[in-house]
Design a protein that fits this description.
This protein is of the alpha+beta class. The chain has 20 helices and 18 strands. The radius of gyration is 31 Å and the shape is flat.
């Protein structure tokens, strides 16, 4: 594009600019307090960053959007990054949803771990940085408030208390060992505690203890006393003393070798819940301040926003505060001059970030060495990247499942794994199973759909390899290297043999070769993925097949039985009277079910 006339037309106003390549793809989105100054800075002769030079070389044209303020531009920039995922923008990706604690909206609410969509009516507390923090909190609440954690299918079918009652972790509402109003009072206290209102809970429990003692109900008074002591111990261990806001996030950022790591420490309800590290993509040559501001804008899109954010490095505090006000209508205080305990927490976050980044760099370096060693084993070109590995799993021909795992860009790509149910073959015929899965996998790739691998591993010896060679040749994909991985003597790790197309004897690789270790890792992952799929398929078939054998049991009645009882074992042990309680089951059919299992 002729850049000079375009730059002259740019206004000295805040806004967002989009850099677009010849294919019409948005390759970069940026915000600016002054569009003219910011966009013009990309086209000066003194650009130092190779990344920026490369990006500018791909620009076909630039589009702008003027906004009322820089904070509004930050909001728009964040939305455009999420929708376009430009290749040159700093991207923070965290594919896993955060875990929460949930109190269900039921007569006797259940205390549980939750991840995913939230249902109306339930109470959710979080987010927590990891599952361990959730489970520890649930164990604490069980110990103090003795709330139920069992599934409804179990809760509704209890005739006597379970082990949780015996070890004083539940008050057994399933068998009416506690009045409904008392249980609801425990739920209320647990909710207040999770909201950080420890003092209010302790005050209420103290009043109840005194009332019980006055009424000479000394056992109840002792129960309240023990709860008060437990809560005070927890508060002493976890309470963060000098935070004016009960909810706060502490963010530290470190850089090494062009890589960044941000560590986020979560303070919720005045307690330290743990931390999480993030590694942004495309952050080379970006200022630390910009990395942190981008992280804050992207991270809080789907997360609970605290009232206080503490950062180690200087950031534009007024910009971020206005961003939260405009985008979420929330007052958030952002500070970067920490004193007292906040400085200690920041130091801890920085240390965590340094350790996490060092581990990642070491892991990346180690993996790069393994990939280079693997290339040397098979004399692969520098452009080599993608491996796909196949395995077959079954038990005496039952429930045959084939797996395909993918290694690309230096790592296993879990999202690209696939399982294939193999059906139209003679049970136990591994060759036919291998033919079917390879044909199904690569038929579309042969027509131009999907990504073609550079190398295919087949878990098996010469026979399975020959089948793979036939299929790949039939589909016209002869430029893919095929390798058969046969188990060694006694199936011992390290004694595997590698068979190549056109060679009758296996190639010899030393057991301590790191490239050979990578081959083993990929093969083992394919085996794990296949066998886990096979076991799930086999278990499902065995659970449902026994009910399918009973005349009069269709898919809906089978589902009703399994949901009501929570599993096949409970159906086997149920009486005729209990079976009749299931929707759609009359006395005659209940007797037939009972007779089948007895």
């Amino acid at each position: 594009m002729d850049i000079k006339p375009f730059l002259k037309t740019l206004p000295n106003l805040p806004g967002v600019y989009r850099m677009i390549n010849q294919a019409g793809e948005v390759i970069y989105v940026g915000k600016a307090k002054d569009l003219k100054k910011r966009v013009s800075s990309y086209f000066v002769k003194t650009i130092v960053s190779p990344r920026t030079k490369m990006m500018v070389g791909h620009i076909d044209h630039i589009e702008i959007t003027v906004t009322h303020s820089e904070a509004e531009a930050l909001i728009l920039e964040n939305n455009m990054i999420k929708s376009n995922m430009p290749r040159y923008n700093v991207i923070f990706r965290d594919d896993k949803s955060y875990p929460y604690i949930v109190l269900t909206n039921e007569k006797y609410p259940r205390l549980a771990f939750h991840r995913g969509a939230q249902k109306k009516g339930n109470q959710y507390f979080g987010p927590f940085p990891n599952t361990n923090a959730v489970r520890e909190s649930i164990q604490l609440l069980q110990k103090v408030f003795k709330l139920r954690t069992c599934e409804n299918s179990v809760f509704k079918n209890r005739s006597r208390p379970c082990l949780q009652y015996q070890i004083h972790r539940c008050t057994a509402p399933c068998v009416d060992f506690i009045p409904e109003d008392e249980y609801k009072n425990d739920i209320k206290h647990a909710s207040l505690f999770l909201d950080g209102k420890d003092s209010e809970v302790i005050s209420q429990l103290t009043n109840q203890m005194n009332e019980a003692a006055t009424s000479h109900a000394y056992e109840h008074a002792a129960l309240y006393r023990d709860r008060i002591q437990s809560l005070r111990q927890v508060r002493t261990k976890q309470f963060v003393s000098d935070f004016s806001a009960s909810d706060a996030d502490i963010i530290a950022c470190v850089e090494e070798a062009g890589e960044y790591c941000l560590n986020l420490v979560m303070i919720r309800a005045g307690r330290h819940l743990g931390d999480k590290s993030f590694f942004p993509k495309n952050a080379a040559d970006i200022e630390t301040q910009d990395v942190i501001e981008t992280f804050i804008a992207q991270y809080y899109t789907n997360q609970t926003i605290p009232k206080l954010i503490v950062t180690q490095q200087h950031v534009n505090q007024s910009l971020l505060s206005e961003f939260f006000k405009l985008n979420y209508d929330i007052e958030v205080k952002v500070i970067n001059k920490a004193i007292g305990d906040k400085r200690v927490w920041l130091a801890m976050a920085q240390k965590n970030a340094q350790i996490a980044l060092k581990q990642k760099l070491m892991q990346t370096e180690s993996q790069e060495n393994r990939v280079e060693a693997l290339k040397a084993i098979f004399n692969l070109s520098d452009s080599f990247s993608r491996i796909e590995c196949f395995d077959i799993s079954h038990t005496m021909g039952e429930g045959t499942v084939a797996s395909c795992v993918v290694f690309d860009k230096g790592n296993l790509q879990n999202k690209e794994y696939r399982r294939f149910n193999i059906q139209d073959i003679t049970p136990g015929d591994d060759y036919a199973a291998m033919r079917e899965v390879l044909m199904r996998r690569y038929k579309k790739i042969a027509t131009g759909e999907g990504v073609k691998p550079d190398l295919i591993f087949i878990d098996g010896g010469k026979g399975q390899l020959n089948i793979a060679i036939e299929v790949i040749q039939e589909l016209g994909l002869s430029d893919i290297m095929l390798v058969g991985i046969a188990k060694g003597e006694g199936r011992k790790p390290g004694l595997e043999q590698l068979f190549l197309e056109g060679k009758s004897e296996p190639i010899i690789v030393k057991k301590d070769n790191v490239g050979f270790h990578l081959i083993q890792q990929i093969r083992d992952e394919a085996h794990r993925f296949a066998i886990s799929g096979h076991r799930a398929k086999r278990a499902k078939k065995r659970i449902t097949s026994s009910l399918e054998d009973i005349e009069g049991i269709g898919s809906q009645k089978r589902k009703n039985l399994l949901v009501y009882f929570g599993g096949i074992e409970r159906i086997k042990n149920a009486s005729i009277e209990e079976i009749i309680m299931v929707d759609g089951i009359d006395k005659k059919l209940a007797e037939k079910i009972y007779d089948y299992f007895h």
